[in-house]
C-alpha cells in the first residue's frame, strides 16, 4: 500500500488556509508557465485576490518564508504547495452521473495536469451505458464497487439528481472511498472519517444575487436621500 502523506489539517494548517492553497497554486503555475522565476508576496497576493499579510501567514504554515528583497522561488513554492495538497501523486477519480454535468467534468482536460485521473464514469440509466465520453465507456452503477477496487479510486464525484445522491454516496463509502465531491443539491450523511466537499451552483448564484442587490441598494440609496431629504441649492450636500 502506498504510504499516505499527512493531510494539511493533520499538520495543524487551518482549513481556511487549506482552501486558499489551490488558489495560490493556480497563480504560481501561471507564473511558472510564463517563465517567471520569483514572485513577491505582494504580486502573488494580488493574483490570488488576498492581502499580502494573509498570504505570508498562509505560506508560513508550509515553512516557506521567502527571501527579503527577492520574494518566493516560484518553482519551489509550486512543489511545496503541490506536496502539501497531495498533488505530487496521481489520484484516481470516479464520477457517478453521466448527464450533462458528469460529461462536462469527464471532458475537462485540466484534471489530468493537476494530478487527477478520471478512471470511470458511471450511470444507472441503461440508455447511457456504453456511451463514449472523453475516452471512457460509461459503465453501469452496479459496477461501482468493482471499479473502485480495480482502479484504486480515491475520490468519488456525485453528479446525480438529489434523490439518488445519498445512495450513491453510501456505495462509495461502503467501497472504501473516503473523499467525496458532491454536486447534487442535497446534504449528505457520512461517517466522521469521510470528507465531503459540496458544490452547489444555485447557492453560488444566490450569493451573487445578494451582492448585486446590495450594490443596487447602494446606488439607489444616495439618490433617494438626495431627492427626499437634501435641501435645495448647491449647499444641499454639505
From TrEMBL:
Modulates transcription in response to changes in cellular NADH/NAD(+) redox state. The gene is rex. SMART domains: CoA_binding. GO terms for biological process: negative regulation of DNA-templated transcription; response to redox state. It comes from the Bacteria. PANTHER family: REDOX-SENSING TRANSCRIPTIONAL REPRESSOR REX, REDOX-SENSING TRANSCRIPTIONAL REPRESSOR REX 1. The keyword Cytoplasm applies. NAD(+) binds at residues 97-102. Belongs to the transcriptional regulatory Rex family. Residues 215-238 are annotated as: Disordered. InterPro entries: CoA-bd, NAD(P)-bd_dom_sf, Rex_actinobacterial-type, Rex_DNA-bd_C_dom, Tscrpt_rep_Rex, WH-like_DNA-bd_sf, WH_DNA-bd_sf. Its main location: cytoplasm. Residues 86-187 form the CoA-binding domain. It is found in: Cytoplasm. Homodimer. Residues 23-62 bind DNA. This is Redox-sensing transcriptional repressor Rex. SUPFAM superfamilies: NAD(P)-binding Rossmann-fold domains, Winged helix' DNA-binding domain. It comes from Murinocardiopsis flavida. Keywords: Cytoplasm, DNA-binding, NAD, Repressor, Transcription, Transcription regulation.
Amino acid at each position: 500500500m502506498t504510504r499516505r502523506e499527512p493531510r494539511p489539517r493533520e499538520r495543524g494548517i487551518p482549513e481556511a488556509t487549506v482552501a486558499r492553497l489551490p488558489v495560490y497554486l493556480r497563480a504560481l503555475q501561471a507564473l511558472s508557465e510564463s517563465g517567471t522565476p520569483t514572485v513577491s508576496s505582494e504580486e502573488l497576493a494580488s493574483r490570488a485576490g488576498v492581502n499580502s499579510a494573509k498570504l505570508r501567514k498562509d505560506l508560513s504554515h508550509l515553512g516557506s518564508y521567502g527571501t527579503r528583497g527577492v520574494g518566493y522561488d516560484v518553482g519551489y513554492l509550486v512543489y511545496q504547495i503541490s506536496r502539501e495538497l497531495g498533488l505530487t501523486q496521481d489520484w484516481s477519480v470516479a464520477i457517478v452521473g453521466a448527464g450533462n454535468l458528469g460529461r462536462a467534468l469527464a471532458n475537462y482536460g485540466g484534471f489530468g495536469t493537476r494530478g487527477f485521473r478520471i478512471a470511470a464514469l458511471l450511470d444507472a440509466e441503461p440508455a447511457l451505458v456504453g456511451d463514449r465520453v472523453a475516452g471512457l465507456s460509461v459503465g453501469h452503477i452496479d459496477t461501482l464497487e468493482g471499479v473502485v477496487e480495480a482502479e484504486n479510486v480515491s475520490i468519488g464525484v456525485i453528479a446525480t439528481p438529489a434523490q439518488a445522491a445519498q445512495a450513491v454516496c453510501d456505495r462509495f463509502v461502503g467501497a472504501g472511498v473516503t473523499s467525496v465531491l458532491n454536486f447534487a443539491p442535497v446534504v449528505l450523511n457520512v461517517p466522521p472519517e469521510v470528507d465531503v466537499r459540496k458544490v452547489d451552483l444555485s447557492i453560488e448564484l444566490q450569493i451573487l444575487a445578494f451582492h448585486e442587490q446590495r450594490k443596487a441598494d447602494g446606488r439607489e440609496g444616495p439618490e433617494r436621500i438626495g431627492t427626499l431629504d437634501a435641501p435645495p441649492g448647491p449647499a444641499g450636500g454639505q
